[in-house]
Amino acid sequence: MAKQRRLSRKEKRRQEREKDHLMGILNNKFSMRKINPLTPSQGDLFESYYQGYNLAAIGTAGTGKTMCATFLALQDVLQKGEYEKVVIIRSAVQTREQGFMPGSQAQKEAVFEAPYTDIVNDLFERKDAYQLLKQKGMIEFKTSSFVRGLTFDNAIIIVDECQSMTYHELDSIITRVGESSKIIFCGDTKQDDLQQSRNRNDVTGLHDFIKVLMAIPSFDVIRFGISDIVRSGLVKEYIMAKERLLEVA
Fold first, then answer.
1. β-bridge partners, 224
2. Using an 8 Å Cβ cutoff, are 186 and 156 in contact?
3. Residue 93, phi then psi, degrees to nearest 5
4. What is the pTM of this model?
């Protein structure tokens, strides 16, 4: 019995050393590179965020909506003020029958989480940044399939790819916002994956949802257009050609 107690203390010391090591990395060797707005709409997003608004960043792909939202949210969380964590929520529209997939919830969500791992690692310029923040509980990822019944307090919630959510999903998410929390919706009304759904009742709710948000004083809706594309010149050329040749036809 005495041996078992010594092992328990040893395991406890090991866990404490790991925690201290992680805290040392976060406190001493962990800094996020500065992001400045590159376009007028990005500037509007930063300004409205700093003024305390909840936000909807809506518009063309490649305009840095999610990158800017993630930077602003993590900046607040790392300052260790009223916000304790960033919660990223994304639609899992490609696998709407997600509950029947094998594996744990984390395994089911991993493919949708990957873009945010890349964004965070890029912001911190180190390959383990996302994992370190996740281990510390400062960042959390969920798909829209798993938010019902939850409440997010003291958090900044980023809802990405929201054009691929039904109105019911968007309604469910916004009613999860708890005390001392802020929410940012990011989406592109021209990239609606729900159009490919086999369920005819699955239609995007973003258009109607934005109308509601615009009637809420604490919300600011920022529009992003072709002139705001920063991902690459090719992306900008492609979207311009697509809108000129296909969407007019």
1. 59
2. no
3. -60, -30
4. 0.81
Rounded to the nearest 5 percent, the helix, strand and coil shares of the chain are: 50, 15, 35
Please enumerate in sequence order all residues whose Cβ is within 8 A of that of 215, keeping only pairs 6 or more positions apart, or say none.
Answer: none
CATH architecture for residues 37-245: 3-Layer(aba) Sandwich (3.40)
Which pLDDT tens digit goes with each residue over 24-63? Answer: 555 556 789 999 999 999 999 999 999 999 999 999 989 9
Which tens digit of pLDDT belongs to each residue from 121-136?
999 999 999 999 999 9
- In this structure, the number of other CB atoms found within 10 A of the CB of residue 24 comes to 11
Q: Treating both helix axes as pointing N-terminal to C-terminal, what angle do 65-78 and 40-50 enclose, rounded to 10 degrees?
A: 30
Kindly report the number of other CB atoms within 10 A of residue 46's CB atom: 17
> What tokens were used for 149?
């019944």
DSSP H or E stretch at residue 214: none
